[in-house]
Amino acid sequence: MAPTQVTIECVKGDIANQPDIDAVVNAANAQLRTGGGVAGALHRAAGPGLAEECRPLAPIKPGQAVISGAHNLPNRHVIHCLGPVYGVDEPSDELLAACYRNALILAEEHELTSVAFPSLSTGAFGYPMKEATRIALSTVIDASRNCQYLRLIRFVLFDDNATDLHRQTLEDLQRQG
Ligand code: AR6
């Protein structure tokens, strides 16, 4: 089958409120428990069944991704990625890229057509937003060239600065081809 054309978009919003998306990506902890930030928002909205389903899948390593159901979230699946703690899990850039690549591999294996990512590792894990944005977008642009099922990859950012940075970086990378 020929690869599909994938749209990559960047929007301001809440990753726990993306009802038109097949799978939302969680900025998880190794134990796949609830936490702050993205993990807190997703587990709160999903309900306790999410943590229960995740228990036997844990622990995961930096760069790894696992998939679960979405429970009370308005999606089909949650893909849980453990991003690197900046300055601790090395090489941070490769581990961060591996998260995005591995999440997209799982999405393709499950024949999903849309995935939404938060900005992994840029909250509690301390990754500088500018570096993380370039790694996230260049990895996703590369990986999207081989997708059979995915048609939409959405980055959901929490504030105007992160959204503008993602849009500008996406434009720059797409212009460079
Ligand atoms: N929707 C979209 N983006 C969000 C949301 C939301 N609801 N909430 C926060 N962000 P973080 P990490 C942004 O800390 O750095 C957790 O406690 C936020 O502004 O969620 O990978 C876990 O349990 C930031 O830019 O993820 C782990 O222990 C980005 O999402 C640890 O934190 C990621 O922030 C994971 O840390």
Features:
177 residues; alpha/beta; Leucine Aminopeptidase, subunit E, domain 1; 6-stranded mixed β-sheet; 6 strands; binds ligand AR6; Appr-1-p processing protein; Macro_dom-like; Macro_dom
Descriptive account of the structure:
With 177 residues, the protein is an alpha/beta fold. The protein has a single domain (7-176), classed as Leucine Aminopeptidase, subunit E, domain 1 (3-Layer(aba) Sandwich), CATH 3.40.220.10. 38% of the residues lie in helices and 18% in strands. It has helices spanning 37-46, 48-54, 92-109, 129-144, 160-176; strands at 7-12, 23-27, 65-69, 77-81, 114-117, 152-157. The chain binds ligand AR6. Residues 14-16, 27, 29, 35-39, 41, 83, 118-125, 156, 158 line the site of ligand AR6. Ligand AR6 binds at residues 14-16, 27, 29, 35-39, 41, 83, 118-125, 156, 158.
Secondary structure layout:
Blueprint: E1 7-12, E2 23-27, H1 37-46, H2 48-54, E3 65-69, E4 77-81, H3 92-109, E5 114-117, H4 129-144, E6 152-157, H5 160-176
Parallel strand pairs: 1-6, 2-4, 2-5, 5-6
Antiparallel strand pairs: 3-4
The protein binds ligand AR6.
InterPro entries: Macro_dom, Macro_dom-like
Protein name: Appr-1-p processing protein
Domain Macro: 1-174
